[in-house]
Design a protein that fits this description.
This protein is an alpha+beta fold. The chain has three domains: about 1-125, Roll (SH3 type barrels); about 130-245, Nucleotidyltransferase, domain 5, CATH 3.30.420.60; about 250-345, 60s Ribosomal Protein L30, Chain: A. Helices cover about 35% and strands about 30% of the residues. It contains ten helices and 16 strands. The protein has helices at about 20-30, 115-125, 170-190, 205-215, 230-235, 240-245, 250-265, 275-285, 300-315, 330-335; strands at about 1-5, 10-15, 35-45, 55-65, 75-85, 95-100, 105-110, 130-135, 140-145, 150-155, 195-200, 220-225, 270-275, 285-295, 320-325, 340-345. The strands form three sheets. It has a seven-stranded antiparallel β-sheet with strand order 1-2-7-3-4-5-6, with helices on one face. Helix 1 runs antiparallel to helix 2 (about 115-125) and helix 8 runs parallel beside helix 9. It is flat and about 80 Å long.
């Protein structure tokens, strides 16, 4: 994501979309009532009785609804046209802006929230990583990004039993070749910061050497108890991964959620969950770390949105660590079970029974 223009006095931010993750961030930022300008096409009639033709134009749309499916390639912004070419009579008409990678758009808000600007600042870094988890049975490649973890490839070796006389070396080489090609393909489609190879035993070290010869990105290695997609999930909690990708929300959210659950058992007065309880803790400056489910930011309930924005404002004002968690992730599912918002507190807060 590139920020081309920013003028908060006028509420204007101009953004160049560079990755699919940028679309997810925009999905969490753009809300009903915002004004969005972008280049689009619209079918118009250029003469009486003529057939409609699609004409390129820049329209300003007052947002009513935003749609985005995780890991899809388009963001759809629905609303009413408030600015556009006079000759085509488009003002007051419904229109959908279709935003993809490479597009430029201008967002105008009455007030930019701190969490919205924070999401943009974090996304400018564009941190991503591929995790390759391997053992003698299966391999899996996972893309870890702001949207969560996407498994982009799976393969199986299934070596024969040791009771059979088999030359294992050609099988392993062929296995490695598949993984290298799949990793290259993933690198072509996604900009990543590093590749981490994980798994049990020596096989992961052998694969790392092969990948070092084939790839031009930083490579790291770490141990997990298994390969495959379970190994990718396990790697998210390993120190080497955390050190490389500490800024990714999906990793940080996992750390905070684990700490929250430990405190819930050990010292429950140092945690809060549920929107009302967390909001009250934020108001008095007690919130040190905060996880918020992204779908709460787009709740159709005006009161819920008002409460979550108030909570976020107080949290940012008091320098709390805030992480917005994608709902379509394992962590998002767990967070939903606690009402979509949890907090680790700086000090104990009285809670009426």
């Amino acid at each position: 994501m590139k920020v081309i223009e920013i003028d908060l006095k006028r509420g204007v931010v101009g953004i160049q979309v560079e990755t699919l993750d940028d679309l997810w961030v925009l999905f969490n930022i753009i809300k009903a009532g915002d004004l969005v300008y972008a280049k689009t096409t619209r079918e118009v009639k250029v003469g009486e009785g003529s057939e409609g033709v699609r004409v390129p134009m820049v329209l300003g749309v007052r947002v009513k609804k935003v749609e985005f499916q995780e890991f899809s390639d388009k963001l759809r912004i629905f609303g009413l046209v408030v600015e556009g070419p006079e000759e085509f009579g488009v003002r007051g008409k419904h229109h959908a802006l279709i935003i993809g990678v490479g597009d430029y758009l201008t967002i105008v808000k009455e007030k930019w929230e701190d969490f919205e600007l924070n999401l943009i600042k974090r996304q400018i870094r564009g941190d991503r990583v591929l995790v390759v988890a391997i053992d003698y049975d299966e391999a899996c490649i996972g893309l870890v990004a702001e949207q969560g973890v996407k498994y982009v490839w799976e393969g199986h070796l299934g070596l024969p039993s040791k009771h059979y006389v088999v030359d294992y070396e050609p099988l392993v080489k062929a296995y490695f070749k598949q993984i290298v090609e799949a990793t290259k393909h993933a690198l072509e489609g996604y900009g990543v910061k590093a590749v981490i190879v994980v798994g049990p035993g020596e096989l992961k070290n052998q694969l790392r050497k092969v990948l070092e010869e084939a790839l031009d990105v930083p490579l790291y290695v770490d141990t997990t108890s298994t390969g495959g997609c379970k190994g990718v999930s396990e790697a998210l909690n390993r120190d080497v991964f955390k050190n490389i990708m500490s800024e990714l929300s999906v990793v940080r959210a996992s750390q905070i959620l684990r700490e929250f659950k430990e405190l819930l058992v050990r010292d429950h007065e140092l945690v809060a969950y549920g929107l009302e309880e967390v909001k009250q803790a934020a108001i008095i400056g007690a919130v040190g770390k905060l996880l918020v489910l992204d779908e709460l930011l787009r709740s159709p309930d005006d009161q819920v949105r008002s409460d979550i924005y108030e909570t976020l404002r107080h949290a940012y004002d008091k320098k709390a660590e805030v992480v917005i968690v994608p709902s379509k992730t394992d962590i998002g599912g767990e967070l939903a079970g606690f009402g979509g918002v949890i907090a680790i507190l700086r000090f104990k807060v009285f809670k009426p029974e």
